[in-house]
């Protein structure tokens, strides 16, 4: 009996001593894989991602504009005549001012690797100015008196270099080359103004006949170093490029029900795969092309569920992914309208909508709203 009392006393004393280690908020993460709930699954493996909504009011909000990084977006508000661009983290809801200016912001875009952001501003005197910003919101370069219209063609192989097509008052067009590292803006001597890089040394362009009503033109490549042109394909409606890939769009004839999408290796010029996309007819000299995005070897596009008349079409759309190397197609989610879209740098999320106010979770095949009023 005496031994029993001793054992009970030892147990009691032991239970009163502080434990060797306490799982506080500071170190619980180190042991989260060892903590098992009633389901038998460690909490670290059951963590739920929850998209946050933007906490702004409907009177100041203008639009969501661009991806800042893989989980952060940039959106624009207008408060008493002041344009403010905010950073918003979609999973935490954390928000921070990125840039502001006392003039209307018309457009915000980024270079391919999201290291430079371009803001188009409409000045009081009716001119357009462009601000090139780094990731800290600091102005790298300011382009003034830029003409009536301006189109940027980023070099995906040199993130601080781009070509700029400028529409002048007399409706002539000139090409400029901007190097943001050296802050040099120079003339780029080339007679074609719609160009895109297809690799480190070559541009591609459509050789349009301005006096023809044709939908298509031959596609040429241009070697910048050798200053040589080479015809790549005949009768192309449009072309688009991504790093290491080239997409051309063509048709059999104007009465066709499908557009032909052909994907090339942009270095070897070899055809990798082909895709047929239903046509929505415009009954004009303009050909309809659905919104699309590239990510690595994947092409995302909003596919009409059937061909038809663009202005009366009501059959819905489907967001589709297409593997350019293999030709494998996968449907992601149904959509009502062919709205603009922008893909996150990691390919997980897709901004979508008239104001890019919705977000598609590509992995979970879900559509969420970033704004609730």
TrEMBL record:
It comes from the Bacteria. This is YqgU-like 6-bladed beta-propeller domain-containing protein. Residues 90-353 form the YqgU-like 6-bladed beta-propeller domain.
């Amino acid at each position: 009996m005496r031994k029993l009392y001793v054992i009970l006393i030892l147990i009691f004393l032991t239970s009163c001593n502080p434990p060797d280690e306490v799982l506080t908020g500071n170190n619980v993460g180190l042991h989260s894989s060892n903590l098992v709930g009633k389901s038998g699954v460690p909490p670290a493996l059951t963590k739920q991602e929850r998209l946050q909504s933007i906490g702004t009011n409907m009177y100041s909000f203008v639009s969501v504009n661009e991806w800042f990084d893989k989980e952060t977006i940039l959106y624009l508000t207008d408060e008493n005549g002041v344009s403010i661009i905010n950073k918003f983290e979609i999973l935490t809801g954390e928000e921070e001012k990125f840039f502001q200016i006392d003039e209307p912001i018309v457009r915000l875009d980024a270079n391919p690797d999201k290291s430079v952001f371009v803001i188009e501003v409409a000045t009081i005197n009716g001119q357009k100015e462009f601000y090139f910003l780094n990731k800290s919101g600091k102005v790298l370069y300011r382009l003034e008196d830029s003409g009536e219209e301006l189109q940027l063609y980023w070099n995906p192989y040199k993130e601080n270099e781009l070509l700029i097509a400028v529409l002048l008052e007399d409706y002539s067009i000139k090409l400029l080359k901007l190097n943001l590292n050296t802050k040099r803006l120079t003339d780029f001597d080339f007679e074609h103004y719609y160009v895109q890089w297809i690799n480190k040394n070559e541009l591609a362009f459509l050789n349009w006949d301005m006096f023809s009503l044709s939908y298509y033109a031959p596609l040429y490549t241009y070697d910048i170093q050798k200053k040589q042109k080479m015809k790549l394909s005949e009768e192309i409606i449009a072309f688009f490029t991504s790093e290491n890939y080239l997409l051309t769009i063509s048709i059999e004839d104007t009465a066709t029900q499908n557009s032909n999408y052909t994907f090339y290796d942009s270095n070897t010029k070899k055809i990798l795969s082909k895709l047929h996309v239903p046509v929505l007819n415009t009954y004009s000299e303009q050909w309809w092309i659905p919104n699309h995005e590239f990510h690595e070897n994947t092409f995302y596009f909003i596919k009409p569920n059937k061909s038809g008349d663009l202005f009366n079409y009501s059959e819905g759309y489907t967001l589709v992914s297409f593997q350019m190397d293999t030709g494998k197609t996968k449907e992601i989610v149904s959509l009502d309208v062919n709205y603009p879209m922008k893909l996150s740098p990691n390919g997980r999320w897709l901004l979508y909508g008239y104001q890019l106010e919705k977000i598609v979770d590509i992995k979970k095949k879900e559509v969420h709203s970033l704004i609730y009023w």
